[in-house]
Design goal:
Layout: E1 4-6, H1 22-30, H2 33-43, H3 49-56, H4 60-72, E2 76-82, E3 88-94, H5 96-99, H6 102-115, E4 152-154
Parallel strand pairs: 1-4
Antiparallel strand pairs: 2-3
Length: 174
């Protein structure tokens, strides 16, 4: 069972997708342990640098590097705060784009609970409103649950037109 490919994506053969692939672009931003754990902690409400370092278990240099990338990618934003008698510092807060990553992060958590056993037991997602178990799933806009073999992925243009065109001799007007 696999997803259905259509359009240029289906006809690409063994050609790598590169930047045409949304997964590749997303992984360039959040595709490592520290970046994903920083996003997890942002969803858990942590925002201060020292707390993020402790919670993620990474060095200050690693955390600083990944926070800079997450801010540059628009997933987090820096908001100044100041403790009495201290210098102004930055809190790292989720942006709308960062909040939009929640289903992907929760899908990984849900997947790990089912497929990567631990002696700690699985983390359970529940709906605060009613207490029922919550799961990440794919649904179409009509509300139907979409199984893997029912999902159609239509690929982008694998050879976009160049954006920087060199001037032609007859386009040089003075």
């Amino acid at each position: 069972m696999s997803v259905q490919l259509r359009g240029r994506l289906a006809a690409r053969g063994d050609e790598p997708l590169g930047e045409a692939c949304g997964i590749e672009r997303a992984m360039a931003v959040v595709g490592n342990r520290v970046a994903m754990l920083l996003m997890r902690e942002a969803f858990h409400g942590a925002s201060r640098f020292e707390s993020l370092c402790r919670r993620v278990g990474a060095s200050e240099a690693q955390v600083a590097q990944h926070l800079k990338r997450l801010v540059a990618a628009g997933l987090l934003t820096k908001e100044p705060y100041r403790e009495p008698g201290q210098r102004t510092r930055s809190a790292y807060v989720l942006t709308d784009a960062g909040h939009d990553l929640l289903p992907a992060v929760m899908a990984l958590l849900d997947w790990a609970g089912e497929h990567v056993p631990t002696s700690y037991g699985a983390t359970v997602l529940t709906h605060a409103g009613c207490g029922a178990a919550a799961h990440v799933e794919i649904r179409c806009e009509a509300g139907h649950r979409v199984r893997e073999d029912e999902l159609v992925i239509e690929g982008p243009d694998l050879h976009p037109a160049p954006t920087d065109r060199a001037p032609t001799p007859d386009s040089d007007q003075h």
